[in-house]
Amino acid sequence: MIVGKSFEAVYTKALFDLDGTLVDSGPGITRSCQYALKQFGIEVEDPSTLRFFVGPPLTQAFPEFFGFDEEQTRQAIVYYRQYYRDKGLYESKVYDGIPELLASMRRRGIACYVATSKPEFYAKQVLEYHGILDSFDFVSGAMMNEGRGRKEETINFLLEHENVTNKKECLMIGDTKFDVIGAAACGLDCLGVSFGFGTPEDLLRHGALAVAETPAEILENVPWLVL
Questions:
Q1: What is the pTM (predicted TM-score) of this model?
Q2: Sign of CA dihedral 206, 207, 210, 214
Q3: From 17, 24, 175, 179, active-site residue
Q4: Same fold across 2-24+93-220 and 26-90
């Protein structure tokens, strides 16, 4: 565990990011982006060079990284989803230790949720494909029309749906600055993880309390209230 600040709360609820936190979805996402870009005549030989697409919403990523306008971005997302629904969704794997972590948290009475910028429809498919969907009380993601795409929107939707009033009991867990920034916008603490797509330095710089280097550290080094 890489410590940035001390934990000042005891948590009963864990909000997990999906891509880069629960699941290594890099190959499926980058190959979907490679396919989408190819439709615009942009050839990317090595899809792993597109890892920066993991984290931000696609509505933000295509304009930021390739200068797409609104219509080009809309069409790029259509192409992206063509590949993702047929192949990309399955080109992923659960990180070692995650199933054991979730099982331990559930046994201890810790409520587990998912808050992701991925469309909720696909997020549930990924979790079900890997056999961990039942580990979560609720999954909050973006809408297929790109609504609720920012991390703070998916977090707030989850909090409202679950009638969470004490935000001090909630800990967001994610691998990129978007998780940290989104959590802060909603008044939540955030724990970073270093086995995803962000870096410990970036996570701590944006306000993560600490960075876990393995899934086991999430349970062992965080003050959870055991019910």
A1: 0.89
A2: negative
A3: 17
A4: no
DSSP state for residue 225 in the 8-state scheme = P
Looking at every residue in the chain, the average pLDDT score rounds to: 94
Please provide the DSSP assignment of 102-146 as one string. Answer: HHHHHHTT-EEEEEEEEEHHHHHHHHHHTT-GGG-SEEEEE-TTS
pLDDT given for residue 40 in this prediction: 97
Q: 45: which residues sit within 8 A by CB, 6+ positions away?
A: none
- The token pair at 175 is 């691998």
> pLDDT-derived band of residue 120, with 50, 70 and 90 as boundaries?
very high
Residues 6+ apart with CB under 8 A from 96: 215
Type of residue numbered 121: F
Top-level class of domain 2-24+93-220: alpha beta
Q: Is 19 a catalytic residue?
A: no
What is the arithmetic mean of pLDDT over 76-105? Answer: 95
All structural domains of the chain with their residue ranges:
2-24+93-220, 26-90
CA proximity to 141, closest of 81, 208, 57, 215: 57
pLDDT digits (tens, 9 = 90+) for 20-46: 999 999 999 999 999 999 999 999 999
CATH architecture of 26-90: Orthogonal Bundle (1.10)
